[in-house]
Amino acid sequence: MEQTFFIIKPDGVKRGLVGEVLKRVEQRGYKIERLEMRTNISNELIDQHYEALLTKDFYPSIRDYMTSGPVIIGVLSGSQVISGWRHMMGATRPEEALPGTIRGDFAQAAEAGETIRNVVHGSDSEESAKREIALWFGNH
Ligand code: DAT
Ligand code: MG
């Protein structure tokens, strides 16, 4: 059975979307294996999480956004859950995310100069899922 790592990002928590997101996960039939709220997330943790993006010019704004408030993190399991959860999230950019996806229904288009706030994260491969689960839950 596949596992994936997900985050309800600070905007999702602030806007009261935790229940909505978890409802969709349960409706879809994925099993919630782990679930925690994390506050006071360090820059270092986000740097490791988004290591592939560290050199991008927009990276500092992503770090500021991801450390701006509490997040919900968790592990889901299910058949083909990695791609399935990515489909449920929708496209990265809110304006490209299809209606019916979490981002399509809830992410707000960024104003000029703003970071993309797109409510949720999901691992993009089996390798990323393993790495991210170990990074966020490794010592717990
Ligand atoms: P995803 O979250 O869909 O896996 P990603 O891993 O490429 O997308 O990027 C991680 C986050 O970084 C994404 O959710 C929003 C932000 N981001 C990505 N590309 C961006 C860009 N070109 N400008 C601003 N923010 C971006
Ligand atoms: Mg990604």
Automatic annotation (TrEMBL):
Top-level division of the source organism's lineage: Bacteria
Annotated family: Belongs to the NDK family.
Annotated catalysed reactions: a 2'-deoxyribonucleoside 5'-diphosphate + ATP = a 2'-deoxyribonucleoside 5'-triphosphate + ADP
Protein known as: Nucleoside diphosphate kinase
Nucleoside diphosphate kinase-like domain span: 1-140
Cofactor: Mg(2+)
Organism: Streptococcus anginosus subsp. whileyi CCUG 39159
Keywords, comma-separated and alphabetical: ATP-binding, Kinase, Magnesium, Metal-binding, Nucleotide metabolism, Nucleotide-binding, Transferase
